[in-house]
User: Which sequence fits this backbone?
């Protein structure tokens, strides 16, 4: 009999929905895990790209005769042939000399936003998009016949993409919280004076520098992707997903993907030059929103050029991370840079890599980024960067995007509370976990995985201290603990707890431990809950969890836990 045939609980992360991770066994729901995380997050998806929360922050995104305000008789008529083969497009008409437009007011949004709409020429050939803010306007005109952008105002980032059949998706990005968005039919480049119509369809306002897949809205904004309480099946290290469970962290960088006023900026001393370009190339997100940095410096130690932001951190562990690749086809040498002279050499290759650097006692205000420096590193570089993150902690966690202010991702928790005698036998059982553990990153002694019998529990805990260690511990009526020191960083761990008539034995990475835990005081047991908890200090990802209503043999457990 295969070992899986003996299991009464099988959780191999694959089937999920919001707030739920499904078990393969049992199929009646008793083994399903409830999942919670009250913020959005990111993961690496099956395509190898970073996947974020998505959103459309407009209301009635393709009903331009509803909450959209019609200014100067900007008539809209639905039922037109659309870019997607439907009759969901609209004509937008402008009157002569009127600068007719449709507008929608917005509030409470971040600083980096992109407005997009699908558009096609009709009797007029141009469209204007505008993002209005309390401090100014971002404006861009687009030629719907030749597929190019034209007049701009306020230094926006404009983009036009051909969809086919004369349709384009036009996008404008602005860098202050929007108070209103506008769509105009235009008679020419920087010319709103003529009369006529264009076709429009499917408007979207979202955070970030690029337009992503369109999301239809009606009376409320819509969020998708890895939003609140969506479990993260992460493919970072394998073609098979692991359930990512991380501690609470805050990205202190206010602009993680954008270089501009008040955001990540270039710096230099002595002899240097630099050019910074937003939306230069495809990032690890799979979208064209990576930043290009081109820099040179002189040949003395005081000549340097770089890219940085001033971030305030406490004088305890702080970790800087970002993605970088070389644009030249060859390796290039740079350094991480912290204020106070904290530096670490890195090598950018033609492939995207994530670099991270931890400082155990940073100064309160840190210039955090990277630099080239005469006589120390390459003095002429051309690299792309993406996803700057500064977080309090001794290791880097998954990417937290920011769009004008710091953002916190709270910790994740999942548990199965419907377990009963059909899943676990009262006196003899086996519980197996296969997980990836960041031993270097434990920052306390919080439990990662637990099984409960009433108020008593057995658990796997990351331990603080100078050695990389993990503990199998007990509480309540259970007595004893087993500690494993000097665990390799980012280890894959397979561990099984076997309970037989009052004794808990441990099998760890293919070997049986000689220590035991006394659980006899809690007999008869009432195993009813299995919990997987990231809390504020544990960084782990679960590959699988198995439960057996019997005590497996030594050989079965040695085979099951062998890496």
Assistant:
């Amino acid at each position: 009999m295969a070992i899986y045939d003996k299991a009464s609980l099988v959780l191999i992360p694959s089937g999920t929905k919001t707030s739920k991770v499904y078990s393969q066994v049992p199929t009646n729901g008793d083994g399903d895990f409830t999942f919670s995380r009250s913020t959005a997050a990111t993961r690496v998806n099956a395509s190898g790209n970073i996947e974020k929360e998505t959103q459309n922050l407009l209301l009635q995104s393709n009903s331009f005769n509803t909450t959209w305000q019609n200014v100067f008789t900007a008539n809209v008529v639905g039922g037109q042939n659309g870019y997607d083969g439907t009759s969901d497009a609209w004509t937008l008409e402008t009157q002569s000399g009127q600068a007719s437009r449709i507008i929608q007011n917005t509030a409470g949004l971040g600083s980096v936003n992109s407005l997009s709409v699908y558009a096609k020429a009709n009797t007029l050939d141009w469209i204007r998009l505008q993002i209005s803010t309390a401090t100014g306007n971002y404006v861009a005109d687009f030629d719907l016949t030749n597929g190019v952008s034209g007049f701009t105002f306020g230094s926006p980032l404009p983009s036009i993409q051909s969809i086919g059949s004369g349709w384009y998706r036009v996008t404008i990005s602005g860098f202050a919280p929007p108070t209103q968005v506008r769509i105009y039919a235009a008679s020419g480049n920087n010319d709103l004076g003529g009369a006529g119509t264009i076709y429009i369809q499917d408007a979207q306002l979202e955070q970030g520098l690029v337009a992503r897949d369109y999301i239809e809205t009606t009376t409320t904004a819509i969020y998708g992707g890895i939003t609140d309480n969506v479990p993260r099946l992460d493919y970072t290290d394998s073609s098979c997903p692991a359930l990512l469970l991380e501690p609470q962290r805050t990205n202190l960088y206010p602009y993680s993907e954008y270089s501009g006023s008040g955001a990540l900026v270039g710096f230099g001393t002595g002899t240097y030059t630099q050019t910074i370009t937003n939306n230069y190339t495809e990032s690890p997100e799979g979208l064209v929103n990576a930043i290009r940095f081109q820099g040179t410096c002189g040949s003395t130690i005081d000549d340097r050029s770089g890219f940085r932001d001033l971030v305030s951190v406490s004088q305890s562990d702080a970790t800087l991370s970002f993605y970088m690749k070389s644009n030249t086809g060859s390796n290039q040498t740079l350094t991480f840079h912290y204020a106070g002279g904290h530096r670490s050499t890195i090598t950018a290759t033609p492939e995207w890599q994530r670099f991270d650097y931890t400082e155990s006692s940073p100064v309160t205000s840190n210039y955090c980024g990277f630099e080239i420096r005469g006589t120390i590193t390459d003095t002429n570089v051309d690299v792309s960067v993406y996803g700057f993150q500064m977080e309090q902690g001794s290791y880097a966690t998954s990417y937290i995007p920011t769009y004008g202010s710091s953002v916190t991702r709270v910790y994740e928790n999942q548990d199965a509370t419907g377990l009963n005698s059909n899943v676990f036998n009262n006196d003899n059982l086996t519980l197996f976990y296969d997980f990836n553990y960041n031993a270097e990153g434990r920052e306390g002694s919080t439990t990662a995985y637990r099984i409960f019998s009433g108020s008593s529990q057995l658990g796997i805990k990351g331990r603080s201290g100078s050695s990389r260690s993990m503990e199998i511990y007990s509480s309540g009526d259970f007595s004893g603990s087993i500690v494993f020191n000097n665990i390799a960083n980012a280890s894959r761990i397979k561990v099984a707890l076997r309970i037989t008539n009052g004794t808990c034995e441990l099998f760890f990475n293919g070997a049986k431990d000689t220590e035991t835990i006394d659980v006899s005081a809690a007999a008869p047991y009432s195993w009813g809950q299995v919990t997987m908890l990231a809390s504020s200090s544990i960084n782990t990802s679960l590959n699988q969890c198995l439960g057996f209503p019997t005590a497996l043999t030594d050989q079965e457990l040695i085979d099951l836990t062998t890496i």
Remarks:
- The helical segments are 554-561.
- The radius of gyration is 28 Å.
